[in-house]
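Entry 14. Ran structure prediction on the chain below.
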Amino acid sequence: MASNGENDKSLIVSFGEMLIDFVPTVSGVSLAEAPGFLKAPGGAPANVAIAVARLGGKAAFVGKLGDDEFGHMLAGILKENDVIASGINFDKGARTALAFRYPTR
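Output, structure tokens:
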């Protein structure tokens, strides 16, 4: 598609996962020994969509999230970052994915 002006923004669509990363509050200990965790939005396709939007592009995310508090929180984060989130399928039979990051040493 040819672009004929600076205001023309092509839509970049990311397909895939979005999840909650749980990051230990202390490094140098095992996950079991971590005193607490911070929750952070994650998932490479969603990260790309947010990065595109923050850089001034037009981005959308398409994927499935659990119809739960975490899923709705993640959809809200996309919207707060000007990512089109109308392609999200909320599944009542699924739970939003959670990942625990190993602390760096």
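The first helix runs from residue 44 to 54. Will compare against last week's run tomorrow.
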